[in-house]
Amino acid sequence: MNIKNKTVKYGDLLVLDKFSHSFEAGKITSIFGPSGCGKTSLLNVICEEDIQVSYVFQEDKLMPWLSVEDNIKLVCQDDQAIKKALDIVKMSDYKAFYPKELSGGMKRRVALVRAFVHDGLLLMDEPFKGLDDDLKFEIIESFLDLHRQVPRTVIMVTHDEKVAKKVSHKILYVKGLPLEVTHEV
What fold is seen in the domain 2-184? Predict the structure, then answer.
């Protein structure tokens, strides 16, 4: 996945100025930096590319009138892939449940599965935000298990350096505005 010379302005505010970067296929790249430096704007620019993208937002975007399984079937009709992914994140027993019947951590796992079973680039904007540390790292392990099974190209925005270090093959440290990569690890 390559981003080349992307510029984003909101009025007079320059958020991206001819930003370019290559993201390695099948790897998890985290973008780590302060609030308001353009990280989410970069994800939004990537969504405008002519590629298939799935997105995990900061908050769960599950359809409340659909069961866990039906929320996932919005993006994938492969029952075997859905079953395998739900097994990995320990949610198979809850496939008939509705979002209101799930805890916050369970909803987060469903959102991850739904994004993961969809083909293409996976974008994640603060996917583990608002979770206590024990639950956060349990869900991260589920996510990493999914990634080991199907190594997707993932670009994740986070303010949590521990999370970035735990999940990433590469971390881009950024500052802005405009968004600029200061170094990579």
Answer: Rossmann fold (3.40.50)
